[in-house]
Design brief:
It is a single chain. The chain is an alpha+beta fold and 459 residues long. 62% of the residues lie in helices and 12% in strands. It contains 10 helices and 6 strands, in the order αααββββααααββααα.
Length: 459
Amino acid sequence: MKTISVFLFLAVTVSSALAQGGESLNAIIERALVIHPRVLEAKAALAGELARRGETLSPYRPMLSLNGYFIGGDGSMVFASSVKPINWAHTQRDGVAIGNVMLMWRVWTGGRDATARDLSAVRIAAARHILTTVEQDVALGVRLSYSEYDYRKGLLESEKANAKAAQETERNAAQREAAGKAPKAFVLRAAAEARKAERQVAVAGASAETALAKLVEAAGGHADVKDTSLQMDLEGPQSLADALVRSGQRTELAFFETMAKAQGLEAKMVRQSLRPEVSFMAMGSVLGSSFMDTGSKAKFGLVVSFPLADGGLRRARAKKFDANAERFMAQMEQMRLTVRREVESAWAEWESSDAVLESSLAGLESAVESYDVEKLRFDNGKSILAELLDAQSMLSEARAEVLSAMRYRDAAWSKLMRAMGEPPEVLMSLQLAEGSWQRGGLGSDKPEPPNSWLKSSPH
């Protein structure tokens, strides 16, 4: 009877609205990874880096420009192309029409073109790391908010059950008073406790609505939740050492390493700009004029440029990028320390969650037994009202402790998964093996939790 009472509470407090439908946690996270503003921002940043790749590589690709001039008036003048200022035409008198086409291609840049390709790839990789990190944070935020809402919904159902019991006690006290078996004070005390329980229901309802609002915010503005059902059969790493090893996949670490590499490539490009550069240049032109021979001409050749002195500008820029690379490497090492602290903290909570849940379940079992005894004694006139109300209060607190322990366990597991850098899909894992125990429903008259989260089942 005790086992059934305990676990029947776990099922009823949370799954009273299963038939109402609504979205699962999986569906909420999936949508959040699409519509959340932070995800959209990170995706836009990635799209910007993909577009920036073309901008970075364009100076090393062939460039073709077509220009036309028609000049009237007195005097001579030089007209430069607005597309390529190096492409110009010189006119002596009025009435001149010129058309030309120009091709320029930097055929040898001292390796800057290859470095630019590597730099673009690294920038894109950094943007992808940011996107993955944001997706993990969003998934964690939804999961924790969902767990909090699950907890608040359970508290609401518990307070409703407590209010129902208080109202029943109030009726019993009134009946005993009418039969001359209890003083008026009993009725007043029972009525006060019933009103208190009703106020607690209102407060719990408001807290549940607040939790739902936070869940909607965490989900990016939409979460159609009518019921919650969190998985209790959760699996964690085998040991703290295993968790620390797996945390090496954290995208934050990869991001700082990638940014350091990007700064190193920037410095490399600056140093490569000190080398000679060879460009192929070709031009064809058509000239029309009333005072000179007209026709078409074409020229081509190589242009060699070599920077002789720039006042130390390039070397200073290279040193700046080198310093930035060292700064990002230092930030990566600091992140390693932060990751280790997060893993150790989450692991400690996860390790203690079994004991916390087991203790709360034992307390609930004891409170159920105590309340049943006091209720029976009170109904048979063997105890006073104060004893029954105390037992009822202890039962309400025990229910809340179990719900809190469940929230604690789920939050500990979720934070551990995030600390190890697991992908968002892990936080969406709610499907249980057939026949396994979960709060959302009971498969038998005597449900038992799996040993993975409760080491000893009460019988």
